[in-house]
Amino acid sequence: MRYQISGKQIDIGEALQTHVRSELNEMIEKYAQRPTDAMIIFSRIAHEYTCEVVIHLSTGLNISAKARASEIYATFEAAREKMDKQVRRYKRRLRDHHRERTTPVEFGGASSYILAPSEEADEAEDQAWQPMIIAETEARVPAITVGEAVMQLELGGQQMLVFRNEGHGGVNVVYRRDDGNIGWIDPRNTK
């Protein structure tokens, strides 16, 4: 497994890196997953440390957690415990999906844009409101089932996930609602 352990404006020592590698290896081996890489970022805001951990599994799923504490080792341990709880909760489903899937998850490319209005717009443009593209990034859109999309949403701690539905090939969205439930948008089913 490849590790990318870094700190934002703080120095990460060799002892912490070794601790992170050993703890994550132990957690992943316990659940018999096949990780490809892990990204761990430590940062500090005032007196608190923050640890963000993202592990990419070979099945195409991402597991992520974020934690804060006053000590750097305690921060990592809190994030690891959150990830452990997520993986334990979804262990059976992770194994079931892995057995059913004979080929790896396919990812299609898509562009992601951040739009903002032009500051130099004259009055005629203000009425039409012509947005200007501020940022463009590449996004990966997986071809998975709805159940796998919901699981990815939960494991990744995301608010929304765009995916290509394996059942019919159309683009779908699952999202976390304000009431805590999961919503699913399938434009193909609208009449």
From TrEMBL:
Gene3D superfamilies: Ribosome hibernation promotion factor-like (3.30.160.100), Sigma 54 modulation/S30EA ribosomal protein, C-terminal domain (3.30.505.50)
Organism domain of life: Bacteria
Keywords: Coiled coil, Cytoplasm, Translation regulation
Domain Sigma 54 modulation/S30EA ribosomal protein C-terminal: start-end pairs: 130-183
Cellular localization per UniProt: Cytoplasm
Signal peptide coordinates: none
Pfam families associated with the record: Ribosom_S30AE_C (PF16321), Ribosomal_S30AE (PF02482)
SUBUNIT field: Interacts with 100S ribosomes.
Protein name: Ribosome hibernation promoting factor
Origin species: Falsirhodobacter algicola
Gene it is expressed from: raiA
